[in-house]
Design brief:
The chain is mostly helical. It has 4 helices and 2 strands. It has helices at 6-58, 88-97, 109-120, 129-143, and strands at 72-76, 104-108. The structure holds zinc ion. Zinc ion binds at residues 62, 64-65, 67, 107-108, 110-111.
Length: 144
């Protein structure tokens, strides 16, 4: 009969787990081996749903060049400085959990790559692609 006290129930479950740990792990490994493809597909489907939520919120369009139907990267506007994950599914979860913070945007892989290069090249003294584009806008304005 299960214990009514939730703390004691947790303790019992933990004790039972440690007692049968090897069989449990063996069973899990066997299950994974037999169902690898469907488990991996399930993960891919879940990742895809997360990605679609991100696209739906930030707009499936590069914020700089306007490209659509391309692979997007999530850009930390102004660089990574708020302790958020750098990329990948962890970042997607972070965005969803934090109700899609405005300091992020979607960039196509090309714009994102150029932004990264500009940031990593100290001789330019630029904080990223936005600063470069701002300079270009000013230059274009002066030429007219
Ligand atoms: Zn772009």
């Amino acid at each position: 009969m299960p214990n009514k006290d939730p703390e004691k129930r947790k303790e019992q479950a933990l004790r039972s787990y440690h007692k049968h740990r090897d069989e449990i792990l063996k069973r899990r490994r066997k299950y994974y081996k037999e169902h690898t493809k469907e488990i991996q597909q399930k993960h891919r489907d879940k990742d895809n749903r997360l990605y679609q939520r991100i696209l739906a919120h930030y707009g499936a369009k590069c914020k700089l060049c306007g490209a659509t139907n391309v692979k997007f990267g999530i850009d930390h506007i102004g660089g990574i400085n708020n302790g958020s994950p750098k990329c990948g599914v962890k970042l997607w979860y972070y965005l969803i959990r934090n109700n899609f913070p405005p300091e992020f945007r979607l960039l196509c892989t090309r714009c994102n790559l150029v932004d990264g290069i500009i940031r990593s090249y100290p001789l330019l003294g630029l904080k990223g692609i936005d600063e470069l584009l701002e300079l270009k806008r000013r230059c274009d304005g002066e030429r007219k």
